[in-house]
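Anyone else keep sequences and structure tokens together like this?

Example one:
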Amino acid sequence: VQTDLARYFLHRRTRSSPGPAKPSPESLRGLLQAMEVPRDRALYVGDQLLDADCARAAGVRFYAVLRPRRSRRD
């Protein structure tokens, strides 16, 4: 799903970003370091179990966004 949210974030990582991918916590730790945000002040919002695994491995709180399932026709 493409959104317009990227314009609100100075630091971000996507699937195409170089470096370790989820669920490796390294990219999340790197983002927190770049933003000077301690882990206990961070919140990871995601919609996949892989997101939860990444947050847990990095020691960051996680908030799940539940989306309705879509058919292949959508």
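And example two:
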Amino acid sequence: MAAPLIEIRGVTKIYRVGVETIHALRGVDLTVRENEMVAIMGSSGSGKSTLMNLLGCLDRPTSGEYRLAGRLVSTLRAAELAQVRNEELGFVFQSFELLSRQTALENVALPLIYARGAGWWGSRRRKALAALERVGLADRVHHRPNQLSGGQKQRVAIARAILNRPRILMADEPTGNLDSKTTEEILALFRQLHREGQTILVVTHENDVAATCERVVRL
């Protein structure tokens, strides 16, 4: 059997704020295999977003071990971590994180901004167009965020996240700012991506969002 895509053992995260010590995570274990769709649930303050930051190589644990595709993350240098984030991980956030003055196409192409070379813009444009088509927004490529609905903004964010065909798509409360109808549309898109072979991690506090996943991990 292939090694897990994600494997963490005994992970803790402690923050110190003044004289106060905050235990955000206490001895968390988690295994995720290729092409799983997993929900991470918990109440407010349970450490869901902290765990997602650790899994996304945006932060380091205080103690414990994290292996990503068999590699011990604690041994990776800053440049290697940046490469992992750009090439192997895709991020979707509750607040979309789109640049207001850029079109949908330009927002999606942002992860390729440093990949210059001969014909660099043409290549970026083709990849961004393909990603927007994949999420059903081929007719909105020249729209700016203020011309898009909440669901369309999240689709742009998902297109940006899958642009480099990451091994893992990480979504932190991706439906938190959406109404129930739009939430179902976004969940249907996640299910479609999963059927196409995408590994997906979803942080959520909503039971209906978790129910769309294969497995639920509770903190």
